[in-house]
Design goal:
- The chain is α/β, with parallel strands linked by helices and 289 residues long.
- Helix content is 35%, strand content 24%.
- The protein contains eleven helices and eleven strands.
- The strands form three sheets. Strands 5-6-7-3-8-9 form a six-stranded mixed sheet, with helices on both faces.
- Helix 5 packs across helix 6 and helix 6 crosses helix 7.
């Protein structure tokens, strides 16, 4: 790392800091002494197979789960704070997740506009103890417009396609004008065309200065703006570095426990499975006349 890069890294404000963080579900640890710092301004992907601890990482930041207490040093800090209020955090860090889509859709007639307004309060329903102001409504509609979803404002969340609902969730996450977005498996349930439109929208946000933290098990979601990839395996950091250094066929094969091959075209990655040696031998024998 050059001297000016070192100085820039030292000056960057930390977004998320984990210091030997351990999280258990029941008696079983699902994150195991993970140390990780993600700075504002550096787009980062966290990649790993199912069961690697990715969803636990998101729930830890969203305060659905807590790390085990360990000595005087806090195991988790978000934007420099060891304790944070989720509603206030949303003003600086928006979250988009399939879980939120499911929960909002379960409310039945909640409109897309109301779902975005709820983002001001980090709730899943409009407040009953106060009226929503005209300014909040204007900002909600502006966020929907920015997410190419204003035409969906009056539709219920439950009636939207997965791709439409995901755009509404981006509007909800952006309604505060946050500095960063935490995206948990954001293209789950999207078809190929909808996925590409969604990723194009993320690239636009990144270019306009919103820090992206992408949590996924799909290499194909890692857009060119992402400059760092963290691999998780069995609750631990398996590798951490620049995409071209981390995303190799050998390393991903070890991560997923299968023979995989990765290729890069036009700044995007594609992962494919290779047949194992036994299968290759059988195919070769079948081809012998």
């Amino acid at each position: 790392m050059q001297a000016h890069d070192t100085a820039a890294a030292a000056a960057a404000e930390p977004l998320i800091e984990l210091d030997r963080a351990t999280v258990c579900r029941g008696l079983e640890p699902v994150l195991r002494e993970v140390s990780l710092r993600i700075d504002l301004g550096r787009h980062t992907a966290i990649l790993g197979p199912n069961g690697s601890g990715k969803s636990t990482f998101v729930k830890l930041i969203d305060r659905e789960l807590y790390a085990l207490a360990r000595g005087a040093s806090p195991p988790v800090r978000v934007l420099g704070a060891e304790r944070w209020d989720v509603a206030r955090l949303r003003a600086r860090l928006g979250v988009v997740s399939p879980d939120l889509h499911r929960d909002l859709a379960a409310l039945g007639r909640l409109s897309a506009e109301d779902a975005v307004v709820c983002g001001f309060y980090a709730t899943q329903a409009l407040p009953v103890d106060r009226a929503v102001g005209a300014g909040e409504r204007r900002r909600a509609r502006a966020a929907l417009a920015d997410a190419d979803a204003l035409h969906l404002a009056a539709r219920s969340i439950a009636s939207l396609s997965t791709g439409e609902a995901r755009r509404v969730l981006i509007a909800r996450a952006l309604v505060h004008g946050p500095q960063a977005l935490l995206l948990d498996e954001p293209t789950t349930g999207l078809d190929v065309a909808a996925r590409e439109r969604f990723l194009d929208a993320l690239r636009g946000l990144a270019r306009r200065g919103t820090t992206l933290v992408l949590v996924t098990h799909h290499v194909e979601e890692i857009v060119p703006e992402i400059g760092r990839v963290v691999l998780l395996r069995e609750g631990r950091v398996f590798a951490d570095g620049a995409p071209d250094e981390v995303l190799t066929s050998e390393r991903l094969s070890a991560l997923y426990g299968a023979r995989l091959e990765i290729e890069r075209r036009h700044g995007r990655y594609r992962l494919s499975a290779l047949p194992d040696a036994a299968c290759e031998g059988a195919v070769a024998q079948a081809r012998v006349p």
